[in-house]
Specification:
Blueprint lengths: L6 E6 L5 E7 L2 H7 L2 H16 L11 H16 L4 E5 L2 E6 L2 E6 L3 E9 L2 E8 L4 E10 L6 H15 L1
Antiparallel strand pairs: 1-2, 2-3, 3-4, 4-5, 6-7, 7-8
Helix pairs in contact: 2-3
């Protein structure tokens, strides 16, 4: 397994056990997600052109370009490239540079939630809170190994809690 399929394994012991596993979106899914950038740029350009259609306005020339740039940046930032790490002690979520650690004993279970044709893993915590994992994401144009990764997360939870 490699970065190509979104899985990184670290620290294998002589007995075959693994120190940690990290799931990210596979390269194919990341490239498909970047399609949101030109779509955001298109809508940003159309919106700014509509808003600043008066030729006498002082920023009428720069408004479409700035609208395209801002919408492209927002669409690119909205496309999340986070991941999940499974360690012996906890489930670690990585989102936009922020790490969140959830100890295994605070997790009650996992379910799959389908939103607009894509599957997401939902973590149910002991206190009733829920977390949606940034990876793996399955469904149409999603991760082909979603079910295997979902079961791997469940097995780590059963083993480490």
């Amino acid at each position: 397994m490699s970065w190509r399929d979104g899985v990184t394994i670290r620290g294998t012991a002589p007995d075959g056990s693994v120190e940690s596993i990290r799931f990210r979106q596979p390269r194919r899914q990341l490239l498909l997600g970047l399609l949101f950038v030109p779509i955001g740029m298109l809508f940003g350009g159309l919106a700014s052109r509509t808003l600043f259609s008066v030729a006498d306005h002082p920023v009428a020339f720069f408004a479409p370009a700035s609208g395209i740039l801002v919408a492209g940046l927002v669409a690119g930032a909205a496309h999340e490239t986070g991941g999940v790490s499974l360690t012996r002690d906890a489930l670690v979520l990585h989102r936009m540079g922020v790490r969140r650690t959830v100890p295994w004993h605070e997790i009650e279970g996992f379910t799959i939630r389908e939103v607009l044709g894509s599957k997401q893993v939902v973590v149910h915590r002991v206190r009733g809170r829920r977390l949606t994992l940034p990876a793996p994401i399955g469904g149409f144009l999603g991760d082909r190994d979603f079910d295997r990764k979902y079961h791997t997360i469940g097995q780590w939870w059963l083993t480490c809690r």
